[in-house]
UniProtKB/TrEMBL annotation:
It is found in: Membrane. Residues 537-589 form the Fibrinogen C-terminal domain. Residues 1-16 form the signal peptide. Keywords: Disulfide bond, EGF-like domain, Membrane, Repeat, Signal, Transmembrane, Transmembrane helix. It comes from Cyclopterus lumpus. The keyword Transmembrane helix applies. Residues 501-538, 912-950 form the EGF-like domain. This is Contactin associated protein family member 5. Belongs to the neurexin family. Disulfide bonds join C884-C911.
Amino acid sequence: MLLLLLSSSCCCNLSGDSPPPPSPPPGAGGWSPVVTEQEPWLQVDLKEQMEVTAVATQGRFDSWDWVGGYLLLYSDTGRAWKQYRHEDGSSLWHFRLVGNVNSEAVVQNKLSHPVRTRFLRFVPLDWNPSGWMGLRVEAYGCSYKSYVADFDGRSSLLYRFNQKSMSTVKDVVSLRFKSHQAEGVLLHGEGQRGDYITLELHRGALDLYLNLGEFSSGRVAVTVGSLLDDQQWHSVHIERFNKQVNLTVDSHTQHFHTKGEGHSLEVDYELSFGGIPLPGKPGTFLRKNFHGCVENLYYNGINVIDLAKRRKPQIHSVGNVTFSCSPPQLVACTFLSSSSSFLSLPAPAPAAGGSAAGGFSVRFQFRTWNPDALLLSVQLNPEPRRLELQVNGSVTFQCGSAGQRVNDGLWHSVGLNTRNQQVSLTVDGEPASTIELWEQLESRGSFNFGGCPPADCQNPTPDLQGCVRLVFLNSQPVDLNRVQQGLLGNYNELQFDTCNIRDRCLPNLCEHGGRCSQTWSSFSCDCSGTGYSGATCHNSIYESSCEAYKLIGSSSGFYSIDPDGSGPLGPAQVYCNMTEEKVWTVLAHDVPSPVAVRGSSLHSPHVTRLNYSASAEQLRSVVTGAEQCQQEVVYNCKKSRLFNTKDGSPLTWWLDWEGERRSYWGGFLPGVQQCSCSLEENCVDMNYFCNCDADTDAWANDTGILSYKDHLPVSQIAVGDTNRTGSRAVYHIGPLRCYGDKSLWNAASFYQESSYLYFPTLQAELASDISFYFKTSAPSGVFLENQGLKDFIRVELSSPSVVTFSFDVGNGPAVLTVKSHLPLNDRQWHYVRAERNVKEASLQVDQLPLRLLEAPADGHLRLRLSSQLFVGGTASQQRGFLGCIRTLTVNGVHFDLEERAKMTPGVTSGCPGYCSGSTSLCHNRGRCVEKSNGYVCDCSQSAYGGTTCNQEVSVSFDTESSVTYTFQEPFSVMQNRRSQASSVSAERSSSSRAREDVAFSFVTSQRPAMLLAVSTFSQQYIAVILAKNGSLQIWYHLQTDRSPDVFSPVAANMADGRLHRIRIHRVGKNLYVQVREDVHRKYSLSSEAELISIRSLTLGKRLDEEATLAASRGFVGCLSSVQFNHVAPLKAALTNRGSSLVTVRGPLVQSNCGALAESTSHTLQGVVTAVVFIAVCALAVISRLLYQQRRAQRSAGIKEENRLGMYTDYRTELHLHNSVRENMKEFYI
């Protein structure tokens, strides 16, 4: 949106000289500009189109004059210029070419892609500080011949076939084009059966519509490229074979499959190039014809332009098609700086016939990515009034607005007219936004575009970073060439004859479907809804396995796991069964119930395909990473055989994950057509290897477990023997169940400094994440290293308490360090995670603060490695690591250290010590700590206590009791706000980083009740309460300007004196709630926002501003094992009574929630029995006395009921009191 504003603040011009034309070269010594020239450049005319592959520079002969770095611009007309950039495999390039360090040495720069041009322009960036600029240049390349056609927007070329239609299985189309318009059809053809192909320029990008043999109302385009309306040449290449298509625009390629059922493209009569000549043609849609130049247009090897130029009969020309490219009429300038760019133009005389009306008019076109920018500033009479035109700005007085989103990188036209005592604003030809004024506006001084001189204008809105063209003042065009030559107006930080805008979202460097947005100087990724987080959506927000969830204290329930982490597979939903010693991952399919079969035969079998809750690739990743997998198969039969045939061919079979047929049944070895009863020798008829193969009239059963991992899971089952009289079968395929995570404890021990493990080169050009655990007693050592010609990446323990992550992608070495206040060579496991992407690098060690380093703007992007990856050492066999490394993962790929260690001297598989096995010695987030003669469990991060962190920590509350755990004091929050800008938690509001884990148990008979509340300094909060009816409610208030999200996972009364376990897990917008073992809910929040600056967590009664009825009532009952992320507040209240972080009000009674619940349950059962017995007796008495004593008995019944109620309440309270006294210790804090 554009905003038109009037302001009373001042705006004036700052004079400055514009650069004169470049001076001629001073003889044979080389080119050197006059010292007084500003922004000089050297232009070279190659006299004809050339394909330039390299340029070389040298300083001025026998002098102290040379150029240290320069920009290279090129143009085929000498008017519209494009800046050459080194391609770095993405949309971000380097502008600067390396120059000289003395006057005599020749420095050659090979161009990463050839440039087809006639003119070259060398723009010095820096030079010898002890001398001046000096250049001798040379260009390398060869002549370039091209066939050119110019289309004026109303013309086209038709390539007509020899027959009525042409059907092709393979097509190749190539061309180059340039245009100043964002719309236009380049190629179109269609057939009567529904085939069509259309290539068109739309919103500055290329859309390809391609369909083979399918009539469809909606046409879906494949889009490639961006900003293609820049009057520069762009290459297009289309390859199609059957349904496979490659579309390449410049260096960006899209691979896709066509729509439709056919494999050939059938086009009737002709193909049109440059437009659709007949808009009323059936089946076509109205689009603008192309306006610009096309070069070297080839269709299946046919040079279309050459045929047209030679007037061959196959080509029919419509309209005015010429065969030379007309010079560009639109010359743009680029505003480079958001703080100092401006173009100041004097007000011209009013147009003829306009003086009577007074006022002024301005028209121009602009393009930008920035959401806030100053477009125009004009001083008005009387002083100090001023009119401003902004992009989404906000200043003192708003007069009007027009247009929608205009920071989309496209050209937008703006018209401003202040005549006839009104201001009208028009954007992109839309209806004008008009404001009536009391008096006529008159301009005073200059018109400032894109900014204003700093001496006269203190503008809070950033200056324009973008391009401007077609400037008209009072209907008179402005010649920007005169501005550049210093003959008109004034400017600063501008580039003329070029629009140097670029699309930083092409290609999209946001991974996993992240949405890219950009400004002039940077891009950002929106990861919401992707399941990933980070600057480029690289990191999975989910754990890799159920085993990993258990290690962080989770209990059984449905979870999303990402088996390959930051890899391409994405998350899958599974059920994690943690009730046994083994943690089972369960993946269900869409046929959960038994299936009855009749009427199937070997030639017409009953076939069922199983679709799982994960993709085939995800299933394979889960199976491969597990220690063991299995799937139960059940076959109930009645005269229905499995394998009993004369020729040995099976009657029933199943397909494995690859679609291979398998004919062995559950419980037996692969490849053998037998069942488990054969292996166990208990088949009903020992003459057969399966119970069903006995082929009896009675029901039989063959049940077994498929456990050969390479074949799992079952993807399809076929039953082929139920077509005989009396034949019936019922089968059931259970879910895929796997346990164990082979990568979690995959370890290697390094006991020689010169030893190492080597692996293939890291594939980590644009992004890489490396994570592992280590333990050592050595003071230093390299964990891993990979080198290239100049690039490298390394993670090492540089001192006993410092981990260092260093790398070089061509911008010079970058180093991140994390220093621990305790030694890291303490023979305990420590976690390290290093990540590097095109936006930033980070290093995490244990729970220490994350270190973050932003990548340099417009620096090199690709990490080019060539050597092997060395783990535990270096190629030089120096500074090797001594100790253990386990769970090494790079970009979601788990490295098998144990297998590689078996064949490497100086390295052994596994790691010695009690804490190095897969057996969980410490539970519920407890950390195993090695000792010289054993181990101990560090339960400081766990809500549980005891020697193995499995003992519940429970406390009884009364109406006045509360526990408040303070995360940060207000002064520390204010103090840390500056550092938060560069730390991980501040930082961005990348909401997909938002994550909470809450777990606790409770027993209460009170309702309503406040169980738990978390609040922040920004007025956000989370609350878990029992409502008036005893139902559980979870409140999430993440956006203070909206109402909180409220969820009720259990509607039943939970204030029933029983023990309830609650687990809440939030990742981004997804909220997972588990109540006990049987209730699992998933909800979607209205916001993904993080909890910013968490203030406190409160258990029981709350006294702050967010008090509700539940909060005012507090909590009466028992709370147990309360965990919030890594904090255990209830445990902290009992064990750290003197800590400033914990505030306790009222009495706290250490208790046992489980015992309370059990005693309450027994008491309630006794009460119910007594009530039932007395009620029966009362009914008998009432029946016997009938009407005579109705009133008297009714009164007696009421008295008896009241007495019984009092007795029951007393019994309950007494029983609870006695039970609690037996297992509690009371203290007051």
